[in-house]
Amino acid sequence: MKKIGAMILSAVLTAVLASGCGNSTENSGNSASGGNTAGGTIKIGADLELTGGQVSFGDSASKGAKLAVDQINAAGGVLGKQLELVIADNASKSEEATQAAQKLITNDKVVTIIGATTSTNTLGIVPVATEKKIPLVSVGATNPKVTVDERSGNVNEYVFRAAFIDPFQGEVMANFALDSLKSKTAVIYTDTSSDYSKGLQKFFEETFKAKGGEVLSQESYQQKDSDFKAVLTRIKAANPDVIYLPGYYEEVGKIVKQAREMGITVPFLGGDGWDSPQLAEIAGAKALENTFMSNHYSPEDTAPEVTSFVDAYKAANGGAVPDGMAALGYDALKLVADAITRAGEADPAKITEALAATKDLQLATGLITFNDKHDPVKAAVVLKFVDGKQTFETKVNP
Fold it and tell me: pLDDT higher for 23 or 265?
């Protein structure tokens, strides 16, 4: 009996160990090169600003990405597998974005990453994506050096973006100032702690001057500044036709509010960094009158791809209207899902090749084709604030 009992115990232990080994083997297939987790899913990382100064951007982008994942999975997934979105918080800091990317690749074994929403934070991810050879699609980075190394001039092989770039955005607003607002003079007020802001300053200035406009002065501030009255006093004395303010919504809201309180009534112009519901909360609806911004899309656009996205987003988010970052988060996820489909497997190298070959892909923010610098060729819109809300002003094609 003892011998039979020992044989039974041995058999049970063997079965348990075999079962454990089987699970371990299946989980070990969840690698950056293999791409599939146990349970038949494909892991996609999201390196986003869930806390910190750009939390509104990250929150919107995550909601847009989640909507895309839900829609894709409901339709059967990709290559017969469900997508799994793994989100890491970069705390709105470049160094944290670097650490979040390392975690997503090393610990979570994602096959591709979307994020971040800003140029500075995305630049923190680029070296990691390059070293690990994991494709990265930035949600909202617009600085040219995200996809092209500024020292060598070489394209960053594994880096792409869903957003248009600053040279186009800066040019759009300079032309709008000159042609639509009939402005002849401008003051540029730049966030010198932001690669995004400095890039837009450069490209707006180049276009504005080249077409006959005069930049009266250039002023500067840094993120987390709160008192702008001394600089605004100088700007008021300069009496420009327009003020170009290429920054993020938190400081922009404070600057516009203080400017209006000081009697500065000229138009303020800015970029997609303004795009947050918090802007109107900070500045006040009245202060935002006579202000304009460039953006990636307008929820008022009646194109079918826009209305279907807006309706689905509202249904999933309690009726909230999706802003530009929500649309870009949605599109970034759709971009990588389309690339995985065309690649035929969740292999980072093949996904990278497929991303580079993206052509005429219809997404919420427009028809996207990647050029040889991995930047999307797409339209921009100019929005005007009315009663604290963005309203469609015009659309500009590249």
Answer: 265
